[in-house]
Amino acid sequence: MLAREFVERFERFAPKEWAEPWDVPGLQLGDLEAPIHKILVVLDVRPETVQEAIDVGADFIFAHHPAMFHPAKNLDLSNPQNRMYATILAHHLTVYAAHTNLDSAPGGMNDWLAAALGLQDCQGLVPSNGPATTADVTMGRIGNLATPTTVQAFAQHCKQVFHVRGLRLISQTPQAPVQRVAVLGGSGSEFYTAAVAQGADVYVTGDVSYHPAQDMLAAGLSVVDPGHHIESICQVELTRLFTTWATENDWPVAVQASTLNTDPFTFL
Fold it and tell me: Which residues are a divalent metal cation 2-binding (predicted)?
């Protein structure tokens, strides 16, 4: 099959028009008219995941995070990012990314995160700003735990669910009860007021910085920051989804999830 055929099917699930205005989803490098036989699903397009694609014989890389957030100003191959682009093109790989459109899609990233946390009766947290979104296309989710717990115990639960060695807890009341939980994958600090407005006991999101954390405390909200890399859940979920599509449509294509950890942070 052609890369274009696969992309057309995916964009019925999570159209690029659902992405936030600042985002750059879609074709990153390569040729959508190229035939594909094996897809490697990754969170990040990094030199190590590109080499993984080459090693496993993939010809299509499906990524969550775009490879080209910032335009290249030159093609100086002493720059590691440029060298990675050159490697992608030299090996005839096609790279495609679905970022905030996948985050907001019904049945997409934030539904996977909410399910992993065991949330029930979920609703959207904040409307998407994508130019073609509808009422059911929302960033983040908010729902309820089946059994109440405490802030601190819930933070420990997040460590286990997302397989992280450490996380940051922002709370003045670690023993307070928790039942209603909001989650937004990636960097969701700016949306904490929506979590407060919808009655969340805890908000789960990544990349919380110093001053927003103080504002969250002042608002009486407890926040669990397990990092940005928890979005790697997409590797397993997308592989499962794409494999189902391949079976349903009799596509001659294999799908494999990356086995590499691209989280740049280490807890000591």
Answer: 64
Q: Is the dihedral of CA 10, 113, 144, 131 positive or negative?
A: negative
**Average pLDDT of the residues in 200-221:** 98
Q: Domain range holding 59? A: 3-102+232-257
Binding residues: 64-65, 103, 228, 231
* CATH number of the domain residue 61 falls in: 3.40.1390.30
**pLDDT exceeds cutoff 90 at 246:** yes
Q: Residue 70: which pLDDT band, with cuts at 50, 70 and 90?
A: confident
DSSP state of 177: E
Q: What pLDDT shows up at residue 154?
A: 98
Q: Are residues 197 and 217 in the same domain?
A: yes
Q: Which residues are annotated as a binding site for a divalent metal cation?
A: 64-65, 103, 228, 231
Query: Long-range pairs for 255-258 at CB < 8 Å and ≥24 separation?
Result: 255/38, 255/39, 255/41, 256/38, 256/39, 256/40, 256/41, 256/56, 256/58, 257/40, 257/41, 258/40, 258/41, 258/42, 258/43, 258/49, 258/52
The total number of structural domains in the chain stands at 2
What would the two tokens of residue 49 be?
């995941």
Q: Does one domain contain both 147 and 211?
A: yes
Whether 268 is in a domain gets the answer: no
pLDDT, tens digit, 9 for 90 and up, residues 20-60: 999 999 999 999 999 999 999 999 999 999 999 999 999 99
Residues 125 and 216 in one domain: yes
